Amino acid sequence: MEKSKKTESLYPKEIFIPLILSVAIVILDQITKILVVKSIPAWSVGWEFFNGFLRIIHVYNPGAAFSLGSDMPALLRALVFGIIPLAVIVIILTVYFKNRDFTTLQRWCLAAIIGGGTGNLIDRFFRPEGVVDFIDVAVYGFLGFERWPTFNIADSAIVVGIIVLVISFIITFMDDLKKRKKNGEKEAENE
C-alpha cells in the first residue's frame, strides 16, 4: 500500500502544536472557575452586562448539559459523567495520534474538545458539588428558554470544537465526492 503525501508530510509539531490549545483551555477554564468560586457566592449573580443579557453567576452542575442526570444517585452519576467521559477523551486522544488524515483544522478542533472535556473532568473528580458553571445568557424564549442553561469555558470549547469539526468533515466529504466525480468523468473520456 502506497503512503500518501499527507501522511509523509505530517511532522510531530503538526500533531503536538494543536495540543497547546488543549492545555490553554484547561488553564483558562480552571482559572475562571477559581475566580468565580472565590468572588461570587454560590447560587447568586455576580455581575450583569448589556442590561442583563449576559450575567456572570456561580452555580454547580452535578449532571451533564442542561443539568441532565443531576438527580441520579451519586455513584451512577460518577460513572456516567466521570468515567465514561474520561474513556471518551482517551479514545479521542488515541484516534488523534493514530489518524494521519486529519486536516490541521480538524486537529485544532479535536484539541479544543480534549481541552474542554479535561477542564470539566477536573471539576467532576475534584469538586464534589459538581462542575462550576458561570456564563448565563438571555435567549428571550429561544427553544422555550428565557436564559440559556449556564455554561463555562470548557463547555464553550467543546461545543465550538464539535460544530467546526462536523462542518469540516462535511466540507472534506463534499470535496472528496467532487474529486471522485471528476476522476470518473476523466476515466469515461479516456475510454
In terms of topology, how is this protein built?
Layout: H1 5-8, H2 12-16, H3 19-39, E1 44-49, E2 54-61, H4 74-98, H5 104-126, E3 131-137, H6 153-190
Antiparallel strand pairs: 1-2, 2-3
Helix pairs in contact: 3-5, 4-5, 5-6
What does this structure look like?
Helix content is 61%, strand content 11%. It has 191 residues and is mostly helical. A three-stranded antiparallel beta sheet has the order 1-2-3. The relative contact order is 0.14.
Helix content: 55-70%
H/E element sequence? HHHEEHHEH
Low-confidence sequence ranges? 1-8
Cross-sheet strand order for the largest sheet: 1-2-3
Radius of gyration based on Cα positions? 21 Å
Backbone shape: elongated
Task: Characterize this entry briefly.
The protein has 191 residues and is mainly α. Helix content is 61%, strand content 11%.
Features:
61% helix; mainly alpha; disordered N terminus; 191 residues; 6 helices; single chain
